[in-house]
Amino acid sequence: xxxxxxxxxxxxxxxxxxxxxxxxxxxxxxxxxxxxxxxxxxxxxxxxxxxxxxxxxxxxxxxxxxxxxxxxxxxxxxxxxxxxxxxxxxxxxxxxxxxxxxxxxxxxxxxxxxxxxxxxxxxxxxxxxxxxxxxxxxxxxxxxxxxxxxxxxxxxxxxxxxxxxxxxxxxxxxxxxxxxxxxxxxxxxxxxxxxxxxxxxxxxxxxxxxxxxxxxxxxxxxxxxxxxxxxxxx
Length: 234
Fold this sequence. Notes:
The structure is a single chain. This protein is mostly helical. It folds into two domains: 9-133, no CATH class; 157-232, no CATH class. 63% of the residues lie in helices and 0% in strands. The chain starts with a helix and ends with a helix.
């Protein structure tokens, strides 16, 4: 019974966060539409755009729309939290110390809800979550362009601890397999030795270039050695 409840709470916690974000955004947007669009009509309808209330109305419209959509939720919510804090100390705090008496309860609630959204994010039902999913679905590696050689690079030895030596060896083996297949397919000429052909395939790393090239020459299959007998007799 408990695992089922835990699974239900885990699934719906992010969804309820999205519902909270949407409802708070709509209520906050209502203040801006009332000032500029008379929707609905209120005592603050028809404010001057250059006044303090008019500037705050623009913030309410833009910020409310972005909070409802869940677009850039964290930075927008952080800005709106600061806006509500300033609004409380300018418009409500001079009326008295207690929020119940100075009518500043709503500004405090908005401030801390936006602060929570700035930390928690917009939830699963948001454009931010959709953008993050699209980025995660992109491949971590890119297919090399035609004419470019794809080589598994190995970092310098000084950066590796003892536990990472096995991983470095596997990278060297992968480099050897790629280079051995390319060396076997390259045309053999007297002017260009197998050593120079193999060295041109690998990146010029300071720690592994020479050792990797020697390993590749030893790893060339026996049936391909007749193509460059003078160069492979090391």
